[in-house]
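Hey forum,

I'm writing up a methods section and want to include a predicted complex as supplementary material. The small molecule is zinc ion. I've pasted the protein sequence and the SMILES. Can someone with a working setup run it? I'll credit the forum in the acknowledgements.
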Amino acid sequence: MTAPFLSLAQIRNRLILTARAVLRDHRTDADGRCQVCRTPECPVSTAARNVIRAAEDVQAAEEQASPGMGRRLRSKQ
Ligand SMILES: [Zn+2]
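Reply by user p_vandermeer:
Happy to help. Structure tokens for the complex are below, copy them as they are.
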């Protein structure tokens, strides 16, 4: 890490990466239950999906506020 603080875009990207890793671990097994929690509706994967949706909503709102800016910022990372 080069700086002590992360930008909001970096924090958002890390949240998304972490949530995706959680979703990979908490996949539904053949019996319809989460292979980690063993419950039919895994609350952990629900929370991870909510994090991804919230992060994407923020990203969409930023791109609407300044079209093209989000793309330029992302390509620098
Ligand atoms: Zn689970």
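Some notes you might quote in the supplement: The mean pLDDT is 86. The two ends are 13 Å apart (CA to CA).
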